[in-house]
Design brief:
The chain has about 300 residues and is α+β, with helices and mostly antiparallel strands. About 30% of the residues lie in helices and about 30% in strands. The protein is built from 8 helices and 13 strands. The strands form 2 sheets. Strands 8-10-7-11-9-12-13 form a 7-stranded mixed β-sheet, with helices on both faces. Strand 2 and strand 3 form a beta hairpin. It is globular, with a radius of gyration of 19 Å. The model has no long low-confidence stretch (mean pLDDT about 95). The structure holds magnesium ion. Magnesium ion binds next to helix 2 and strand 8.
Length: about 300
């Protein structure tokens, strides 16, 4: 049973109430607690040694990544984070200096995004380090972006460059909070998700939630230098394009925008975020399924991304 099959079994067991606007299955839960004009966003995420970082990773970067992942999900709803709780499961014989350095990494990122760390839990996890971060945020009701909502004809955009993130960037990425809010405030964004499991996988999630399909343009996919290097190293079959489609941990934004907004968005983005690439990678189609157009023609996209508990 893989991650998504397990989640599908668990969701029916989760109680709800009328204040739940969006329950399990999106980047964040969305709750109406009666705040005027705003919803509450609620998210938890965890990193585990040997899964999300190597044992030798610098502690500051582990702390950074644990919080950055949760903030990236707040960004995916076009929200603003407010505060966080941190749970740390320490292996036996932990080094206090290591844990303090880990919190220094958490703290630096939290300060940059005005996030208060308001408590948490320390516990023992005998085998390996585990770090879990829960974040509360808010979003204006009218601007809350979900995975559902993409419409046929929408242009698909992605920020940054994709692939090869495990070669370094995954420990250092800055969540695209400002970019997400900026685009949601100014343009007709219909759906958004952050890329954690690879473009091929996360785009499928967005399309499935929206009940639509898409056609991607292979040469428009922004391929990172790290993806090119890893493709070279891994030989034939492992092309840079395939790495950009399938590698996880990009933590970039993927969103669907009304077609008439595509050109004005591209122009305004360059002025607003000159250092962050924005690429129009394809369009949403009424017909379900995911197609990829390359120099060889149009084909069904077979690439997938990262899935936890995947059976070999
Ligand atoms: Mg996400």
């Amino acid at each position: 049973m893989n991650e998504f099959e397990l989640i599908a079994r668990l969701i029916p067991l989760m109680p709800s109430h009328p204040g739940v606007i969006v329950g399990p299955g999106d980047d964040c839960a969305v709750i109406d607690l009666g705040l005027p004009d705003r919803y509450l966003l609620f998210k938890t995420d965890a990193v585990v040694a040997g899964v999300h970082f190597d044992a030798g990773a610098p502690p500051e970067k582990i702390g950074h990544k644990a919080l950055a992942r949760a903030l990236s999900d707040i960004a995916a709803m076009a929200g603003t984070p407010d505060c966080a709780l941190v749970t740390i499961g320490l292996a036996r014989g932990f080094d206090a200096g290591f844990v303090v350095a880990l919190y220094a990494g958490l703290r630096a990122l939290a300060l940059r995004h005005h996030v208060a760390i308001v408590g948490g839990e320390t516990t023992t996890n005998p085998e390996r380090l585990l770090l879990s971060v829960s974040v509360l945020g808010t979003v204006p009701k009218a601007r809350c972006l979900r995975r559902a909502g993409a419409r046929a004809g929408d242009a698909l955009f992605v920020t940054g460059e994709l692939g090869g993130a495990l070669r370094g960037r995954h420990l250092e990425f800055e969540p695209r909070l400002a970019e997400a809010r900026w685009v949601a405030e100014r343009f007709s964004v219909h759906a958004m998700i952050d890329l954690s499991d690879g473009l091929a996988e996360d785009l499928r999630h967005l399309l499935q939630a929206s009940g639509v399909g898409a056609e991607l343009l292979g040469r428009a996919i922004p391929i990172s230098q790290a993806a090119r290097q890893s493709a070279r190293r891994n030989g034939p079959g492992r092309t840079p394009l395939r790495a950009a489609l399938s590698d996880g941990e990009d933590f970039e934004l993927l969103f669907a925008v009304a077609a008439p907004d595509a050109v004005p968005l591209t122009d305004a983005w360059k002025r607003q975020f000159p250092c962050v690439k924005l690429s129009c990678i394809g369009r949403v189609t009424a017909e379900p399924g995911l197609k990829l157009r390359t120099s060889a023609g149009l084909r069904e996209m077979t690439e997938h991304g990262y899935v936890h508990f995947q059976e070999p």
